[in-house]
Structures
1.
Amino acid sequence: MPLQTILLALCALFVAAGPASAAEPIRLGAVLSVTGPASFLGEPEKNTILMEVDKINAAGGVLGRPVEVIILDDETDVNKAVLAVDRLIKKENVAAILGPTTSGNSLAVMGKAAAAKVPLISCSAAEKITKPVNPYIFKVAPSDRLAVARILAHAKTKGYKKLAILTVSDGFGQAGREVLKELVPAEGFELTADEVFGPKDTDMTAQLTKIQGTSPDAVICWGTNPGPAVVAKNRVQLGLTTPLYMSHGVASKKFIELAGDAADGLLLPAGKITAAAKLPGTDAQKAQLVAYATAYDERYKAPVSTFGGHGYDSLHLAVRAIADAKSDKPEAIRDALEKIKGFAGIGGIFTFTPEDHAGLGPDAFIMLGIEKGDWVIVGP
Amino acid sequence: MFAGAPQYIVSGLTQGAAYGLIGLGFTMIFNTTGIINFAQGEFVMLGGMLSVCLSVAGLPLPLAIVAACLATAVIGGLMERLAIRPLAGAPPVNAVIITIGVSILLRGGAMLAFGKDTLALPAFSGVKPILAFGAAIQPQSLWVLAVTLALLAALKLFFTATIQGKAMLACACQKKAASLVGISVARMALLSFAISGLIGATAGAILAPITMTAYDVGMMLGLKGFAACILGGLGNPFGAAAGGLILGILESFGAGYVSSGYKDAFAFIVLLLLLFVKPSGLFGKAGVERV
Amino acid sequence: MKRPVIGQSVVQAGLFLLLLLAVPAALPNEYYLSICILGSLNAVIAVGLNLLMGYAGQVSLGHAAFYGLGAYATAIATTRFGLPIPVGMAAGVTLAAAVAWIVAAPTLRLKGNYLAMATLGFGIIISIVFNEAVDLTGGPSGYVGIPRLALFGYTFESDRSYYTLMAVVLALVVLVALHLMKSRTGRALRALHVSEKAASSLGIDIAAHKRFVFVLSAALAGLAGVLYAHYLSFIAPASFGFSFSVQLVVMVVLGGMASVWGSVAGAFFLTALPEALREFEDIDILVYGAILVLTIMFLPDGLAGGLKRLGRKLRRVGVDHAG
């Protein structure tokens, strides 16, 4: 008797579940560094994904089904990222994975996602993620090469000849340093100094003093908060006037807040979203960018950053692929992702091909300056 | 050859004074309880974070800093009362693990309460550098050095001229004997945690305008402070201060003349070599081993 | 004195292995298997560190460095120099042991907190080298493309097979540790823990014994590092820093000093805890810290001591009922 009861109950469940399955949510997973050293990236990514999922579902979801994103925090730790991806693939059975936030974590989990044939859209920038192309791995953050190229183009127009670099000794800084050491001489500049600082360092006057000794025309500092803000302050304290370029790693209002008056006159390459309101009205993306910035500001009472944009792009690309594929099967999503053309995201216009899983062109960056605590657009 | 040396000395002394203050906090607790307090760095973090938050909330800067330091002293006292005292009789390594647990709690609490952003505190008297001896000196550096000296003098006075201070010294020398002559060792332990919270928070507050602060700065600063007091000889407050200054100078010269990437390694190599030659630090007494 | 001590350790380790091998059958999905693999890796290091800390009474706040040396050595040997994996693994363990042997002589003369500082400094120096020697280690962004473990023509491709391997390795390590502690060397180590002077007056060569156990525990950490690198096929310096060294010490103390089983329990407990606390979302770190503090407060002799007392209490209750 009990066995029969159980069987009956199971049948009843299946019958009940049958018609409901039409509105069963499409499950996506996200592995983001919401805490830990990279939380300044992961937190806006998480906020943006939560906000955009609500927007997508309010508009009827995709394929007539709501979207559900299971967000796991990897605490900026490699092992936790691996466990999180395992959990998403093996326990939660997600259709695609958004993130991880950092390059190191992305490189560490790529193999797992590819082996399980689940597409992964990384929010990080390292070129190694999509070069060589892995069929299941995509990324949305623009490569550092594009940012460096923007800085060097600007330096050329100013007639600078000698450049010094000061980079942070973490994954972000190292990636920048490698590209800088390659492109600075290749573009015909002389590299006078190559200094580094630790991610938790609190005083860079020693490095700046040493750099000043090599009398460069300009200094390029590559790092994420708070290091570059310390560099900016130390530069003022030492009374240096050599022009200072920053990287897109500090392209947020937070940096201006931290560096205070010392931020005045600094230059950096940044995604268009950073100064969305200042874009010329002719810019095709302006309306979309301003709408996102306003919505984010309203919901979270915090200024937008390019980083949140990576969350936006990874989510919307996945959803667009699901719509194109008319399926939430991981392999179908992968095939559809590879065919996406001219998708207007926050970070730029994405066009994926079987040979290019990064999808962005050089127009992803514009050159910004800081004046009286606000952004000014100084060049394309 | 020695280009930039004056600048390196100024930077090194500023950083070093802060390391010394943090080391001083370690020493206070170690002397009365024999515990290495891994949450010492979190006291520094709390000093900085609370100062910023209170001043943003509208308190005038000096008041915000005093309030932050007192609040951290209370937290230090609470830590002793709630987490350390109940352990009485357990091996010291357990107490050390407890301090690690408390540091995780304080860091997590600060993250939830103040957020994950790095915060800046305005400099006490402007940022216009003073140019002297070929170096640019920030006014805040002078504040750091002056406050460190003042705290050292106050401690000296406390240990030599007050009954509480003398009682604390007695605990450091011989716990059992101290309790036999009527000193409450438990109260001294409480006091030492509170004072050490106060010193740590002061270091955090005076350093914040130069280095900025965030919920996760404590671990690295705590580490440097621990290195400072080992360098000077554990148990000797003035050794800790001197150790801090030496460590700061080593780092700054390491960054300037060796390699900025290896500057911490350079400082630690010197520290290790020194320990191999003098196993109980520069100013430490050679330990007497009980059989 | 019981005679068949060695037989006893073999039986214990054998039963432990059977238990470990039975675990996957009880798991609902393979995600839990990944936690078990990381848990056994940590357990291998913790058991080794406990030999040093719990038995011989020498602190190390730098053991993550040996873990990292093992991992990087095999990574570089197998990818850059194209050496076979077993050679890379041997290189990893040997490098960790050799570095430990060199460091041991000056370092182990130091005592207590000075020893802690020296090992801490050593760990930091090594982790800075991992970060800065970019040409060799790939720097902060990590080392990619390490091959998955393959031995005697068999590739441990699935997590299930890797876990089986880890279970065997962990059981062997436990066996070695149990056996060692019952041997003459184990007794000598415990003697020098209590009093170096007394031990040396009994004719125990203090320096040699300390160095032996330090090298052994470093070699075990190196072994874990080697297995970690070939499991994840990606390593980054952040995994081998000061905070991991501290975590290892916490595993040992939380598990129970001078208890091999305690270290195993401590390692699995601390590896699984953060995953279990995911349900708490934002406040998970507070819960983690609170559990740490409360465990030490209420189980001063660690998980091992707690379990032992629980067992005794149950037995007593059983006796009461029987009587």
Note: Chain B touches chain A at residues 3-4, 7-8, 10-11, 14-15, 111, 116-120, 127, 129, 131, 136, 138, 207, 210-212, 214, 216-217, 220, 252-253, 255-256, 260-261, 263-264 (CB under 8 Å).
2.
Amino acid sequence: MASAPSKLYADDVSLVVVLLDTNPFFWSSSSLSFLQFLSHVLSFLNSILTLNQLNQVVVIATGYNSCDYIFDSSLDLKRSLENGRMPVMCSSLLQKLEEFSFKDEQLSKEEPEGRIKCSLLSGSLSMALCYIQRVFRSGALHPHPRILCLQGSPDGPEQYVAIMNAIFSAQRSVVPIDSCYMGAQNSAFLQQASYITGGVHHKPQNLDGLFQYLMTIFAADLHSRSFLHLPKPVGVDFRASCFCHKNTIDMGYICSVCLSIFCKHHKKCSTCGSVFGQAQSEAASASDKKRKTPET
Amino acid sequence: MNNGGGKRINGGTEEDDDEDDVNGDLDAWERTYTDERSWESLQEDESGLLRPIDNKALYHSQYRRRLRSLSSIATAARIQKGLIRYLYVVIDLSRAASEMDFRPSRIAVIAKHVEAFIREFFDQNPLSQVGLVTIKDGVAYCLTDLGGSPESHIKALMNKLECSGDSSLQNALDLIDGYLNQIPSYGHREVLILYSALSTCDPGDIMETIQKCKKSKIRCSVIGLAAEMFICKHLCQETGGIYTVALDESHFKELILEHAPPPPAIAEFAIANLIKMGFPQRAAEGSMSICSCHKEAKVGAGYTCPRCKARVCELPTECCICGLTLVSSPHLARSYHHLFPIAPFDEVPPSHLNDPNNKLQRNCFGCQQSLLNPGNKPGLFVVCPNCKRRFCLDCDIYIHESLHNCPGCESFRHSKPVISNEE
Amino acid sequence: MPQVKIIAKNFMDMVASLPAIKLDMLYRNQFICEAILRSLPPLAKKYVLQMLYIDVPITSKSLQEWVIADGSSKHKVAIDRLIQLRVLEVIDRKKETAYKLNSTFQTNLRKHLINGGILPREPMPSNVTARLPTLEELDAYAHGQWECFLLQLISSGQAERSTSFSSSMMRIFQRGLLRQREKEVPRLTESGFQFLLMDTNAQLWYVIREYISNSEEQGVDQADLIAFLLELSFHTTGEAYSLNTLTDDQRAMIKDLADLGLVKLQQGRKESWFIPTKLATNLSVSLTDSSLRKQGFVVVETNFRLYAYSSSKLHCEILRLFSRVEYQLPNLIVGAITKESLYNAFENGITAEQIITFLQQNAHPRVAEKTPAVPENVTDQIRLWETDLNRVEMTPAHCYDEFPSRDVFEAASDFARVHCGLLWEDPKKMRMVVKAEIHMLMREHLRGNK
């Protein structure tokens, strides 16, 4: 298991893994067009790379049907200088992105449409963490890694367990997850992710000024963060999603054997197969009473 | 070295006297080498040259073995894990615990690893509680009551490490039996005894006590630090626990950490139950409200009970107004990887990579590292049985030991076998 | 090593000390804007980016609000640096000061962020250039050149081939590093020894700085030189660039840079070109404190023996500074750290800390994995031997006090100073301690005054 590394570069050298939400269902309904969004993000990536020669940026696309790496500054800047221009970054990123969206779209044709048009955040988050582990393994000298989620799609409750797993793994290896949420409702998953891992969560008021938000909040390296006024969480949504209907709930029933969450009372736990003897109301109140005794 | 040598000898004789018992007659430089055993990491190759052992392959094969043994248990249908555990850790503080066959002494080693164990325990078993009991001078004391905060246990333990007198298993078991009888029926009752002594000095018939424990469904496990004892073995056999004896410090650490993951629940041990719980939201930083637990106005983030909207300061707790059990959902989610384990990946012989039909993926799907060894020789890699994505060995370990997600399965909508079958 | 920072800072100070017009001219060049941005402290970088798209001046008060109370000292450092480099322009209003980004700097940086960086010049197509050296060859070349230069710098006799630097130029580099008494072999000065123990980037900056300040005397514009050097660091390592794209001044300079190993010059059938090496591209990196470290080669054992896996003469010379080199194999130097060798080093002005950091930074990768990389008993002993030299010294002395007036006191202290006998004085309380040797003289003097 990875622990916090001991020797590092100078404090402000950072590796930013950006998770880009490319879900077409979201962008078609958003006030900011995907192209505008991209131009903000490209400038942001450029400025991260400008800040320090050793800074590194990796972009992973979070699609509707798949996720993939679309840019890695450690590879792309060294390669392909045929046209002699540094904006290889932009061109290679855009090219990969186009290929990716095409493939992503192809996959969706085979699929009946789901009820919530969420993107596969759990997948890209897992990939980002694998990448960061590789950076940790690469030796004592490596940049400070962090993850930035640029997410617009709503939470996909069926990803709940996977996203939580990823969050805890990030917490264990001290990788902060920053999140910038551009959708309509706030995302409970991203709020929790940033809260648990010590990252910053922000929901910009005005998407036209996205670049300024990105620069002001998310460009700060981990070292400078200890001196800066950054947005504080305006409450964290700690709701969970139930295992039976994938609803997001704030009150529910927990199986005492496996801790699965259900929104209604069941006779049998669908996860571990335990049979619950008593009726719902009794069980709840009885256990409440019993719990009180040992604690007082 | 003319100058240094003379000084060393003079200085050494003075210090030797008080250091002797701890470090034997080794010099400082000798000690570093005995600890590291650097010669053991060398290997002879075909031509008789010495090479460092390829630790990576070795490490990975060890890990595969571990994974296989775990998954073979897990495949036995749906395993029920006892996730709500009430565990008493019994620490033997009798004369025997001050022996120095473990360096610097048994009790120091025990304390060090109990600390690590308690932290790991709470990480893996949210909602569970631990209590500490010590045995000293033939009497068992309750050091800390059952509780959910690792810090308070560790602090209490570190202050009480003197050893003296005899040890008594029966006294400890009787004491714990009394405490554990009060816990709710869905909780799993467990005792973990770290036993240094080679005897037990009991006031009555210990066999009766063992039967009593068996009746109250307390699972007793023992880790011995000296030699195997019949009575411990008997106790564990009767109550369904595990009895192990540590060979050395690292073995002891391994043995104690084995008790951190939740044990497979035996259906009759605890009655399954549905518990009603609330997942409160965290209020904004700097907001001000009246806290229901301290009955005073407080500034700063608190949590709001979803049923009665009262404010509480900390989780997990019970709402003092409506009595609802309040937990933070991330707390619960820490244990979900036990419920939805990812299948072990299949090892693929390297020759497949050069197969012309199979030129799909040359990089690890997780970290993008090339699966080819330096010199374009194909290396060892693994494949997820569900999504058929390829991963490098390092990612394999990371995915199974820490992440508990398969990045390949997570990034494809149509192939989500683990979660979709819940519906 | 603290020296590294000072050197790097001095270079930026040099940039900062350029007249305003020249600075503005410098900022017309995109690469310089980028290099300057990179050289700033982290917080300052953040401010620049944050203010990039704000066109109105920002009051210092609102700027202060960006940081929390703990960071106010860092905030001040950042703002001072920005003003010093004229990146921030101060606008004084009636009551409060406001800041605004330098407009040239601002436009250039905006351009850079939107369009991405543009290469300073196009590399030559591969069909024109002959076989280009691989990156490893280039690295080897650069290090070879650099070591050759260093060897020549410290002892001109030892270098196998001499660089084309004129002896007057060489003497300028040696100024401050070597001290030559008449008819004597030049000896390294304190700073010279320290110079040798620095890492390559720091040494490079020292030399470049000397080079730039010297060129001023020869009528080349400092700003041009700085611009060219910074620009060079944005070229791609290993690519060939035509010499025709350079101005005359630059062409003259590139020959010197080739001697330092910053670029490799090659000649084709028609054209000639230069290939920047890692040393050149790392120039702007070294402006920040993070140093790219090369692989170490030294193993120190607990018995004070020292093994250096290196065939370089320079390394041998450096090790000789503080250890007794016992024998040399083709790729291995074996030595021992002894009291005598260390006393030698201390006499030359090298401190124990410098030796220890050198050993730690150049530790062989195998031992660098361990902590500590250098055995503790060795580092402790090095420090102990150093403190041995700083023992209390006993001087028989006499203390004088209760002077009748300040005049008498001052006259007495002057008298003692003239006779080199004043050890300590406290003018406020009118007390002084004087060496015993001049006690008699002193008494005479005081009596005479009465």
Note: The longest strand of chain B covers residues 139-147.
3.
Amino acid sequence: MLNRRNFLTAAVGVAAAGGLAACAKEDKASTGTSGGGGSKTITLGFSQVGSESGWRSANTDSVKSAAKEAGYNLKFSDAQQKQENQISAIRSYIAQKVDVIAFSPVVVTGWDAVLKEAKAKNIPVVLTDRSVETSDQSLYVTLVGSDFTDEGRRAAKILEKVLEKAGHKGAVKIAQLEGTTGAAPAIERAKGFKEVMDASHKDDWKIVVSQTGDFTRAGGKQVMAAFLQSNPDINVLFAHNDDMAIGAIQSIEAAGKKPGKDILIVSIDGVKDGFVAMSEGKINAIVECNPLLGPQLMDVVKKVKNGEPVERWIKTKEGDFMQDQAKAALPSRKY
Amino acid sequence: MSTPSRWRALTHHHLFWPTAVLVLLLLVNVPFTPDFFSIKMTGGHLYGSLVSIVLFGSPLILVAVGMTLVIATGGIDLSVGAVVAITGALACSYISDQADQSALSGVLLAMGIGLLAAVVCGLWNGFLVARMGIQPIIATLIIMVAGRGVAQLITDGQIITINSEPYKLIGGGYWLTLPFSIFVVAVVVAITVALTRKTALGLLVESVGGNAEASRLVGIRSRRIKIMVYVFCALCAGIAGLMISSNTSAADGNNAGLWIELDAILAVVIGGTSLLGGRFSIGGTVVGALVIQTLTTTIYTIGVPTQTNLVFKAAVVIVVCLLQSPKFRAKVFGAKFGARFGPKSGSTPGAKDGGKPAAAPSETAATTEAAPQMEVS
């Protein structure tokens, strides 16, 4: 069934591409006139994954407000986590002859056909947040997004600071709450953390337990409750996102321990509730994964439109926060 | 009664195999968590692995109990996960709008709104199944898919965090040193058992499941019974939704109760209720739900690598289901553990219909006989 559907999609794609190629000649004239004037407002077609989390809604808001500020004409669509929705959105942007197409791919593969259509019409494509796997690297110009592996590395580095500040001595027994199994952020954050750990703390740090909490509070809470039973000597928690850390904090408290003191906590993301917990002293440090990439995206779109060269991967600007910065940073948290 | 025949009676009890698996799973934890069975007082309440299992397992028990009755009528309810999400989302978003989040009246009203929405979902499912004659799996699929979207609409795609002490009690608080959710579950289970086993209601549910048309012809209002079980199931899911959101003091429209319908169906099956309908065991379902929750906890404690979690879970579930099959037991362990086949099979209490689709009247007769047995649980 699925195969048949994929085949149909592909067939429609090929047909559409053929059709577009056929009318490419007459289109040229019209694109020429609209692209000629440099002062004309840029039209950006943006296809979002969906609205599956607070992080994602913050991401959407950022793109919308940044486009407004930059004075672009933004055509926005929500794919509701479905690739076929996203493909049809991109196709409609191609038909509307937008200047630049940007999108956060729902999944990694299956984009070649529609991206080739965009390329045939000379519409540059910018990826945001997530990457795609494609045989032809020229199908997209650049990726604006976070480096998850580096976030893992930064988490390990900030843990060094946290341990030093807490005056911790002796073995560091780490519990790791992983994200959804198989998700890129989960795999890469774990990888980055382990990299630093193996390089500079081979003897004194040890991940004693590691399990997935599915990026959710309920998951983090349940897994941590089990960890505390099986390994009561855990003294550090590394959570792949704030929500799992917030869930885990509740379990730590139920076990009669003090989060942030008896068990030092480092997490990634930097959502508002995470900062609230940090300002209460329950999380020791947060590595930011910034969804507010709107302004950077608009910058890139302008450069791409003007034909300026851009880097292949534009990493989002992100910060690391310790407890003493939490209170000051809290009001700036929008999501 | 001689010892062998007692042993025989014991192994033939419908709760024997699920309970055996539960005990075995609990024992597996001991080498990994030395004081697994110890329960101590921490911060004014009991604390220990067993307490955690019951606390985190409560929502699943509730959903599974509701699911049991639906399955007993030969139906299935896939929408429970979405109902969990909707109820939690409604209750939390109402509370978060209050000036005083801890005001009891506001919390009660929020819970009322949530449960009302759950009942509406149940009525809708019941209406589609009983009145419109739509296949239960399709009818309930509608809310399963659309309901989560509704929940996200209510929460605006965000996780709503609340700070309300009374609301926290339902799923995360303690009462008389025990998790409050244990009392909620106990009350719901007690009411369900009383209604289905002390009144004719249980028999009616089973007869509708055995043969809806025949039941109607003997004067049972099978449609009404069906609508009732779907509403009851949704209500159970609603209470579970309040519990799940209360446990973390947050409503997560996207993840709350995700896939709980599958765990609930599994719990029902492990508990010995036939998916064909016509008979059920509430006690078995409770044990089944505890087996699943213990299995989850076991995975966390014994250090199964994340990537193989589901494989491990699947392997255990396969073993449990095989143990539940009288045919399999007869093949592997010999006749001693297996059910007797042949004409007598229908009257063996607790044994499933050994592959023979019995005619409805004899089926009903068998369940009447088996009914007092089930009360023991």
Note: Chain B touches chain A at residues 29, 32-33, 36, 42-43, 45, 47-49, 52, 56, 152, 156-159, 161, 172, 244, 247-250, 252, 254-256, 296-297, 299-303, 306-307, 309 (CB under 8 Å).
